[in-house]
Structures are given as C-alpha cells and as structure tokens.
UniProtKB/TrEMBL annotation:
EC number: 2.4.-.-
Keywords tagged on the record: Glycosyltransferase, Transferase
Domain Glycosyltransferase 2-like, residue spans: 3-134
GO-annotated molecular function: glycosyltransferase activity
Name the UniProt record assigns to this protein: Glycosyltransferase
Matching InterPro entries: Glyco_trans_2-like, Nucleotide-diphossugar_trans
Superkingdom of origin organism: Bacteria
Listed Pfam families: Glycos_transf_2 (PF00535)
Length: 264
C-alpha cells in the first residue's frame, strides 16, 4: 500500500500525518511538497534519512487543489503500487484504527475506490446545503446512496486501486468527485467501509474565505461529475453562478507533462 500525501506549508503537521499512515499499515509513503515556504521539505528530508520507505517529490510552485494526488499516483504506479491511499498533509486526527480498517477492507474486498463517510446517511437539511445536495445526487445517479451516503473522495482519506487509475484520464484524478463518477460508469468496486466524523480528521483551521473557495471548488467538481454521469458536456455552472473556487489554479499543464514523460 502506497500513501500519497500532498503538502503545502505543513511543517507543523507533516510528521504526524506520516506517522499516522505508517501506523495504519502503509509500507511506502510519498510526500508531494509544492510551493512550500516553510520547513516542510526539510522535515520530510530528515525523516527520509531515518526511514527509506519515505519519498519526497518537490515542486517550487503551487500545484493547486488535488493536483498532487494525480502526480503522486503516477510515481506510485511506477514503483509498483497496487493500491494508493490519498491522505492530506494537514490531517492529525487520532484515527489509526479507522484508517487501518479502510486499507485492509480495500485490499481484502478488492475495492477500486474505498471512501470515508464523514457525514452519515441520516445527515439532515441537505436541501439547504448545495455541496451536500450535489454529493447526494452523484450517489443517487450511481444508485449507491444507501451504500455510500454522502461519502466522496473530495472529503477525507480514500483508497484507489491501480486498476482504476489506469482506466481514467490522469487529469481526472485532480477532481475527486469525477473519480467517483468515472468509477461508477466503469462498474468498478466502490464502497465506504468506514465512518469518520469530520472533527476526527484533525484538519487545520481554515479562514472563511478559503473555506468558501474550497466549497466552490468541490461544488464545481460535483457539477462536472453529474454532467458526465448524465452524458452532458462538462460544466461548473449552476443557476446563474459558475463554481470555480480554486479550479483555475490547478496545474493541469504539469499533469499533462508528467503523463507525456510516463508514456514515452
């Protein structure tokens, strides 16, 4: 099991994130540091000297939301990974056992996409929350809401099989809701075997502006995923609003360069 951990200025947390995935059972760990201006890379490099299972990919610029997981997945595949855990570098919650269950279940039951349910199927007032409403619509389009609820690879740790990664365009891995949609269309094995309330993730505090932009990014990704599932051209527009968030900052050009290098 390979863990891919994106990191941007996570000097205060990255060592705990790495320790968590190691305790959960990951044998190889790749940190994708991008645009760091703190000591994140130094800390990871020092850990590397003590532990040969830790690797570091470093980019001097920001890659954008979820782009590191796409880039990291290609590195892990080249190293022979059959399953990849995506785990954010700012997560410091005490969830070793839950994460271990997620990893074990993904392998034991040959899941192609194993999700953490951070809400529960009985979450209320979804009609007033566009993000949750669109997550539910994706699950319902896949006829899986009773099975996965609001679980989505955009929120919480997830495990993806090499088989799924090889079947979808690499750029789609930078938009997690699209990974779920494509996995469903390909009739891959999907489940949400663990429940992790959001507070237990231990993610870093986000200011209101950042939180709004992240929500808009995920809503836009969900809208694109729904258009794919419904056989329509991709769109991030709902009503009179285009949900961009951080989408335009994603370095898809870097993903394409890495894909070309891999293919050649």
């Amino acid at each position: 099991m390979y863990a891919v951990i994106p990191a941007w200025n996570e000097a205060a947390r990255i060592d705990r994130a790495i320790a968590t995935v190691k305790r959960a059972g990951c044998k190889h760990i790749l940190v994708v540091a991008n645009g760091c201006t703190d000591d994140t890379e130094t800390i990871v490099s020092e850990l590397q000297q003590k532990d040969a299972t830790i690797d570091l990919l470093s980019f001097p610029f920001r890659l954008g939301v979820d782009v590191p997981r796409a880039i990291g997945s290609q590195y892990a595949l080249r190293k022979g990974a059959n399953y990849i855990l995506f785990y954010d570098g700012d997560l410091v919650g005490h969830m070793d056992d839950t994460l271990a269950t997620l990893l074990h279940t993904a392998v034991a039951f040959h899941l192609d996409l194993a999700l953490c349910d951070c809400y529960g199927v009985h979450f209320q007032n979804t009609e007033n929350d566009l993000l949750l409403k669109k997550r539910r619509e994706i699950a319902e389009e896949l006829h899986m809401f009773r099975q996965i609820g609001y679980a989505n690879p955009a929120h919480g740790p997830s495990v993806v099989s090499a088989r799924l990664i090889r079947r979808i365009p690499l750029c789609d891995l930078a938009q997690p809701p699209i990974v779920l949609a494509k996995a469903g269309l390909l009739r891959m094995h999907i489940d949400a075997p663990v429940h992790v309330p959001h507070i237990r993730l231990g993610s870093a505090f986000k200011d209101p502006e950042h939180t709004k932009k992240i929500r808009d990014t995920i809503i836009g990704d969900c809208l694109e995923a729904l258009h794919i599932l419904r056989g329509k051209p991709r769109s991030r527009v709902f009503g009179d609003h285009a949900f961009d968030g951080y989408h335009q900052e994603r370095r898809f050009d870097i993903i394409k360069q890495i894909q070309i290098q891999h293919d050649s």
